[in-house]
Specification:
The protein has 136 residues and is mainly alpha-helical. It has two domains: 52 residues; 62 residues, no CATH class. It starts with a helix and ends with a helix.
Length: 136
């Protein structure tokens, strides 16, 4: 009796694995359709809904991230002529110190030093400043 249960369990696990592999193949072929130029946009939006991968969701997530990161100090970067994007607070403090004490010729250039709060956020600020036409 015990041996039969183990065999049934093994068969069940194999069928689950087969189903998962089939689902992966289907998802992969659906993702390929998203890149195909001949596929209609309505069909692409339906595929995105099925995969749970919508551009609107990503845009909303990015908008929330920007709103969380943009405090009154970072918002002043919009009024600078040049923005230097740093990885963290230590780099920002160092560059601010150097501009105030050593690099005197840079004081008049309206440079803002931005702390991106980590290297994984730098691309977000680069994209934001690119869209706003701010040299960075």
């Amino acid at each position: 009796m015990r041996k039969e249960k183990l065999e049934d369990k093994s068969k069940l696990e194999k069928s689950y694995l087969e189903m998962l592999n089939e689902a992966r193949k289907n998802a992969s072929s659906l993702r390929d359709k998203l890149d195909d130029l001949s596929v209609d946009e309505n069909i692409k939006s339906r595929i995105r809904r099925i995969l749970g991968d919508t551009d609107n969701e990503r845009c909303m997530e990015e908008a929330i991230r920007y709103s969380l990161w943009l405090d009154s100090e970072r918002a002043s970067s919009f009024f600078a002529d040049i923005v230097l994007i740093c990885e963290g607070a230590a780099e920002k403090t160092f560059i601010d110190y150097m501009i105030k004490n050593e690099w005197i010729d840079l004081r008049e250039k309206k440079i803002y030093v931005l702390d991106a709060m980590g290297k994984f956020n730098i691309h977000r600020y680069m994209n934001l400043f690119k869209e706003l036409g701010i040299y960075h």
